[in-house]
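Honest question from a wet-lab person: if I give you the sequences of every part of a complex, can you actually get the arrangement of the whole thing, not just the pieces? Trying it with mine:
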Amino acid sequence: MSAAAFTTVIGLEVHVQLKTRTKLFCRCSTQFGAPPNTQTCEVCLGLPGSLPVMNRRAVELALRAAVALHCDIPTLTKWDRKNYYYPDLPKGYQISQYDLPLSRDGYLDLPDPQGAGTPRRVRILRAHLEEDAGKSMHDEVAGHADSRIDLNRAGTPLLEIVTQPDLRSPTEARFFLNELKLLLSYLDVSDCNMQEGSLRVDANVNLHLDTPRGRVATPIVEIKNMNSFRAVERALAYEAQRQGDEWRTTGRTLGEVPKQTRGWDDQAQVTRGQRHKEESSDYRYFPEPDLVPVTVRPEEVAAVRAALTALPATRRAQLVAHHGLDPYDADVLVNQGPALVDYFEQTVACGADARRASNWLQQDVLRTLNERGLTIQQLPVPAAGLAELLRSVAAGELETTRARQVFQRMVETGATVAAARQALGIVQVASEDLLELCRTLLAEHPHIVRDVRGGKTQALGALIGKARQRNPNVDPARVKAICSELIAAADTP
Amino acid sequence: MRLIHLTVAQLRDALAAGHVSARDVTQACLDEIRRVEASIGAYLAVDEAGALAQAAESDGRRAAGRARSPLDGVPIALKDNLCTRGQATTCSSRMLAQFVPPYDATVVQKLRAAGLVLLGKTNLDEFAMGGSTENAALGTTRNPWDLRRVPGGSSGGSAAAVAARTVPGAIGSDTGGSIRQPAAYCGIVGLKPTYGRVSRYGLIAFASSLDQVGPMTRTAEDAALLLELIAGPDPRDATCALRPVPAYSQTLDQDLAGLRLGVVREHFEAGLDDAVRQAVQSALEVFRSLGATIHDVSLPHSRYGIATYYLIASCEASSNLARYDGVHFGYRTDESALLRALAEERGSAAAPDEVDTPLVRLYRQSRSEALGAEVQRRIMLGTYALSAGYYEAYYLQALRVRRLIRSDFDRAFGEVDLLLGPTTPSPAFCAGEKLADPLSMYLEDLYTVTANLAGIAGLALPCGFTRGGLPVGLQLLAPPFEEARLLAAGHRYQQRTDWHTHVPELP
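Yes, you can. This is the full assembly:
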């Protein structure tokens, strides 16, 4: 695409499933993974005569997300029907929000990936509530195009978050999604699990090109069917390339062709035009007469705001400012979720050095959690225990290798530091005992002493190994230091 | 007096006194149904065995001193757009001919809980769309006063059943006059409660913002007794009001002295049948003699009522009826025939394309085959009016006029306590007379639709007969949630008149 400098312009539509126990308009469970059509009732099946009743909890969760996204929350919001026919939509309309959404005009700041500089601000156009449709499973065996519908998901509450076209690269789109997912998990409003469909992304993308005739834009394409953040990034990169190629071939610009919908084929790593021309449908929105408008009192919004726990951006800043971590480490910890940050802060509060605690969390603790499939809340080592262990390391009572063994023991048995050390036979070697051991070793190995005197200081390594054979609890660094001192002292007349 | 002539209130007393059993009453109704149903056709289904079993249980409860309510054992009929668990609920449509709901409508639940005997399901215009019960796909209902004539609609089956004395009371639904108009045509009492007074849960929706369930009886007192049972808040209907239910039957004997009665000027203009006008004028004199003062009232926007109503109702209907797509429940076109046709069309110009997919074909054929002409007409009207480019001009404009109509009533009720006028411009017309002219059929709703648009309460009462012996209906309208006032006025009027005691002569 050397012919013209271009900018990729991306806007995202993110659907997140809210963490309610029951559906948006009935009392069916939202639990994932139940046998098809077992979590249904006359309401979510759209049986004649049934009526929706709003789940207040879904509104609360949506409000929490909207406030955290710095959105304006109008005092009145209402429901609308979006009419279209599809077999997984049993009523023939989806209850959604059209012209008076729950919230609008917010933003999300993306931290600079380099950890410095000003954050990128991505504006949020709106965030509104709607019910999910069911799931169609097409089984297109030759000649028998059988489709099956599972309506367990029908009526599940979704928050649709629509950004302005503020993203400028596929990677930035992925950063945005990571940050959004992190925010929503800090808020505890969604599981954001793409595999289970609790987070879905559609992307709108086109190119703005600088040509000799001025700036032109390529037709906007909506990409669907992306099942991971990586897939979003790749699909956008592919699509940007494809649009550049197409523009060079056809010269067609925005407005000359209708908006197209393309699906991402993850196996072939390409986008393909979709048969269903969504853009041609007219949803005939109108106010949902079966529900009453929802009033959101300013006090309610204030209460939600007051109850917000520290969000990712705040916590990153706190880790840097209060604990002296560098931005990179702060980011790694914060990305692990609020519970891990809490654990870190408790560890430091119990007297551990912040940097050491950060290193331990990023290495030993995270590895343990991954290996054992645990959450930080399930880790058998309390923050106070880790802090005690790290204090011993700092005081020189334990060297790092031994401390790791103690930590593993604590993980396996839930023991305290002292108990784990005892079980491993780890006791601190008294200074006079260590001195005596060093003297004995030097006396027994005059050739090593000679080598050291001759300038081969690395020969001391052999002494350290022998010292550990006699007593595994000795601190290698101290053995080395004492032996060096003794040899030097003997040199001095 | 024969059992079938007893009103709900009289049955209540007779049952309480032990003079009759629920079984006897139910059997009397079933016998009368057997005698006259062939000429009337009020019912789509009569649950003979079920009704007798319910009656026997009721007698058992009463004998044990555990009657569920004063009306325990009183038979009742239900319009067949109210869901009954395990019992077909068809809306008189081929689309739902086989539909058996897995749940009871809230109203049905309440009637069962009070021990009433559910006798059967009554005919209606398909999906309650119509004013003659001629749009019914599953049965033909005739007016008991003249079998050549329609019973009105859409609750024509319920009205005819009550008028023919096959049941003392029935439940109907009213979206633009569907309780009051057939009540007027059949010479009975029909109450459309305030929107939100009675739960709509389990009422198969026609137009959600207008639909309301209500009683159809022979007296205002009976309507009060039934409304007491079926009204009240429902956690399953968000549009149902959170207001306690007054004891309507206990406040019927209010003195009407000083009652300010407004006569709606626009309801006496051109198009009103002379016999109807005269009957309503005499009713006015009755109220005057009861102490009411009469006032001239104008509802200037009422002339836009029909247009507004048919836009809003059709828009909502187009969406409410979208679920009848042949996929999840109800009628589906013959699939193997469809597949054969698709195979034959392969390669031809008629073959499916990106717009006309096989799925679209399934929808279209299922809906075309199973929905009647009137229903299709309204779905098309509503779909058109909600479409991009027309929405503002039609739907939004209709909403604006709806607000004006409501404020007309607000203003009127600032000056008077009740409004009075005819229920319909003319008495029951002959079957087939208006089928070719939907617009003239729509005009029969002229005086009734505005109450639905405004959400207020309306009561139709028999107030006389034409020279040809057809009943004429009076309409009283009350401010929202003033059913007590409405029913008391109706009751006092019926104490002074005997129109409601006339019985159609059936062969």
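Two things worth pointing out. Chain B touches chain A through 47 residues (CB under 8 Å). Chain B has two domains: 3-261+422-501, 305-395.
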